[in-house]
Amino acid sequence: MGAGQQVAVGTHAEIAASYLEDECVVRDPTTVSDGAGGRTTTYADGATVPCHFGPLSEAEQSVYAERVGDRATYRVSLPVDTTVTDRHRLTAESRTLDVLSVSNPPGASLMKVTVVEVEDGA
Fold first, then answer.
1. CATH assignment of the domain containing 37
2. Does the structure show a pLDDT above 60 at 10?
């Protein structure tokens, strides 16, 4: 390393926290009767957590294209202690998002969540 170059110093949590400049709401699923003998899923606002919200690469988008069509897909980074599964929804940047996948490997400083924008009326 040359003179004058700096290295990020801090714990994984401190470095992760500096990256999470946005906020999102984790929406918890609840299954309720639809009044006609069936069940439907509703979502209630849960925890508000710091996040980093951004687009997927074209290669990553192609992995999900068959499943989600032309709906916009994104990557959301969250603190590793956030409770979120593929049954949850997130609200970030005025978008409602279905969770497609969650990656939270041991020792990671951030959880990576792949999401898709919810279709109108869903």
1. 2.40.10.270
2. no
pTM: 0.79
The token pair that represents 61 in the structure block: 């988008």
- Structure tokens, 87: 């049954």
CB 89 within 8 A of CB 96: yes
Q: Which two tokens stand for residue 37?
A: 């003998």
Q: Is the pLDDT of residue 9 over 80?
A: no
Q: Environment class of residue 22 by beta-carbon count within 10 Å: exposed (0-12), middle (13-18) or buried (19+)?
A: middle
Give the pair of three-digit tokens for residue 10: 């801090």
What is the count of structural domains for the chain?
1
pLDDT in tens, 33-59: 988 999 999 999 999 999 998 888 888
Quick one: tokens of 109?
A: 């400083």
Tokens of 59: 């290669």
Catalogue the E-assigned strands of the chain: 22-33, 39-55, 73-79, 89-92, 95-103, 110-117
